[in-house]
């Protein structure tokens, strides 16, 4: 009964939407207008994603026989296994915690949900340093407990949770927050316990948000590059690491192309399912919530403490390691960064990082916002899914594709900025699109009735409502680009050294001083990411 009513209501809303938007806009059909607005973003994807990928496949050929070799089949199995295990462990933590946060009043809840985006955009090398400082062979927790997680795959799983648990929690919270409290109250009135009401009523209704979070975490874990590269070694290499090895070291493009295609098919299926789940969600209005009590409070704060431990202890470990030497507190590592003979100098690394991030942000906002507006107006799932295409491919393969497709631009800075923009623009789209879907069309119609033109109505009514999500997406993009690492390995030049590449170089050098300086650079990157969220007020938009 609830299901059929929901379908009828959704159909009525869709028809109403079509009529209103047709009346609001010009003689152009709404879907055509959406595709037209998204055309610059689609042209960018064609030039800097599709064409480079086709160049790799065309020049290297495709050796499909690679999928019959036991070694690569084992790499595929491990890639899927570690991604699936990350989703399972994340669901055990994020789903009950998301339900409890959505059903109870917790002080500082919104601030916590915004702060939890910080691990998601933390540069991977920063996370690697933090995890190693805690759980590595000489890590603090390893020395206390005697358990060395670096000898197995557990450290990779913990790293995946560090990055992806916040996203899974936010989407779970959004899914449960949309469940009408009256339905749960009715189940309780009919004699269901709080646990049974959550499982039989709230869980099915929140399933699209939960499924979207699970698929997104699976994609991010399966396509992770720097984490398995630095923590996994040869034994626990994923497909992404194998693609990098075959492309960059062995120049074996036929085998790499086959792996890229297989990975693309897996990611494409997951992405289409994801866009189907998140489409058309409506955010519930705020409501008064009770404080957690008894067992609910114990479970809520226990899961919350575990989440904070997973997501923030590596960051704290990096900051501490940057000022802790063998004999206690020291500033020697920071002094080493600003020494006159430092190569490359800190001013060059910091200047390049800020310059590249600023240029990227401009392009990412323009392309990401136009793609979101086009997907909103057209209501096209393929157009929606195309915004996720950059997240489905190896950045290393795309970087190599740039060199093959545009050899004359190999020494030009705008090719590197294009790679950065490709990484950053999907985050803008995924943040702005939910805000557009939640726009009250009645307010736009009222502005038109009062004499405002279409552009004026959008500028005075729609833009202020979408602005917080746009700022949140910009903060996510900026923080991500500040520590970008994968594409930079292929496209960088010595004079383009950034904080992340300088960090990577120091990790490759022996000695406690180099490790300490790497932690200092990681702390600086972390401070820049925090600054991006503070300036742009990140996290207000819902990423979907």
TrEMBL record:
<keyword id="KW-1003">Cell membrane</keyword>
<dbReference type="GO" id="GO:0005886">
    <property type="term" value="C:plasma membrane"/>
</dbReference>
<feature type="transmembrane region" description="Helical">
    <location>
        <begin position="297"/>
        <end position="320"/>
    </location>
</feature>
<dbReference type="InterPro" id="IPR000515">
    <property type="entry name" value="MetI-like"/>
</dbReference>
<feature type="transmembrane region" description="Helical">
    <location>
        <begin position="260"/>
        <end position="285"/>
    </location>
</feature>
<feature type="transmembrane region" description="Helical">
    <location>
        <begin position="112"/>
        <end position="134"/>
    </location>
</feature>
<feature type="domain" description="ABC transmembrane type-1">
    <location>
        <begin position="76"/>
        <end position="274"/>
    </location>
</feature>
<comment type="similarity">
    <text>Belongs to the binding-protein-dependent transport system permease family.</text>
</comment>
<feature type="transmembrane region" description="Helical">
    <location>
        <begin position="154"/>
        <end position="176"/>
    </location>
</feature>
<feature type="transmembrane region" description="Helical">
    <location>
        <begin position="28"/>
        <end position="56"/>
    </location>
</feature>
<feature type="transmembrane region" description="Helical">
    <location>
        <begin position="356"/>
        <end position="378"/>
    </location>
</feature>
<dbReference type="GO" id="GO:0055085">
    <property type="term" value="P:transmembrane transport"/>
</dbReference>
<feature type="transmembrane region" description="Helical">
    <location>
        <begin position="76"/>
        <end position="100"/>
    </location>
</feature>
<feature type="transmembrane region" description="Helical">
    <location>
        <begin position="197"/>
        <end position="223"/>
    </location>
</feature>
<keyword id="KW-0997">Cell inner membrane</keyword>
<feature type="domain" description="ABC transmembrane type-1">
    <location>
        <begin position="350"/>
        <end position="536"/>
    </location>
</feature>
<keyword id="KW-0472">Membrane</keyword>
<keyword id="KW-0813">Transport</keyword>
<feature type="transmembrane region" description="Helical">
    <location>
        <begin position="515"/>
        <end position="536"/>
    </location>
</feature>
<dbReference type="InterPro" id="IPR035906">
    <property type="entry name" value="MetI-like_sf"/>
</dbReference>
<keyword id="KW-1133">Transmembrane helix</keyword>
<feature type="transmembrane region" description="Helical">
    <location>
        <begin position="385"/>
        <end position="405"/>
    </location>
</feature>
<keyword id="KW-0812">Transmembrane</keyword>
<protein>
    <submittedName>
        <fullName>ABC transporter permease</fullName>
    </submittedName>
</protein>
<dbReference type="Pfam" id="PF00528">
    <property type="entry name" value="BPD_transp_1"/>
</dbReference>
<feature type="transmembrane region" description="Helical">
    <location>
        <begin position="411"/>
        <end position="433"/>
    </location>
</feature>
